Amino acid sequence: MFAIYKKELRSYFINAIGYVYVGVFLAAAALLCCYTTLGSQSYDTSTYFTMLIFAFIILIPLLTMKLFAEEKKLRTEQLLLTAPVSIWEMVLGKFLAAFTLFFGTVVVSCINFFPLYSYARAERANESYSVMHVGPVTAEILSCLIGIILIGAAFIAIGLFVSSLTENQLAAAVITVAIIAVMLVLDMVNQFIDVYAIRFVIDWISVMSRFGSFTGGMLDFSAILYYLSITGVFLLLTTRVYDKRRWG
Hints:
single chain, mainly alpha, globular
């Protein structure tokens, strides 16, 4: 598994896709932070994180579209299937490579919060400022970071599954974009539905409705389990696809 992980992680930077992903992610994160938090002169970061999740509609497919589709296009898929690794190890190796790049970029994007803390220190140093707590709420930032990392892992697993179904990277990207977009807009569509039973079901499966508790600085363990479940289910589906190909 580690060999597949290293190969896949290295491949992101052999061609331009890794650099494009990192550049677009960091640029989008910086612009969103300036627009939502710094621009509004507010310490509230919930809007920033919410909009960043919607940016995943484009960002995550950049990471996942090549994972298996490229293997099929280059006719190297059979080498993977005959390698001395299990299907699970093959799938996890590719998933962890994409997740590592995603996680590392999220961590680097945290530099956007440095101006908030610097400004807060300057305000606290001002003797005329009488409010006891001035500055961003660290618990809110940390909980939101955990939330978007879990959501990112779930979306990467979905993109990995889609990539396993086709050899066309563009098709894999478009289908992943569509699936992620639908999952994210369900919460907005739910506001226009009058039937309680339908609203309840949509609210239960909505990615964004479950993210609400993270923006309040709380860890919702049911939401954590939900995001991990999505990740696990789509990784399992991907292994089933390749189980059939190996023995079919």
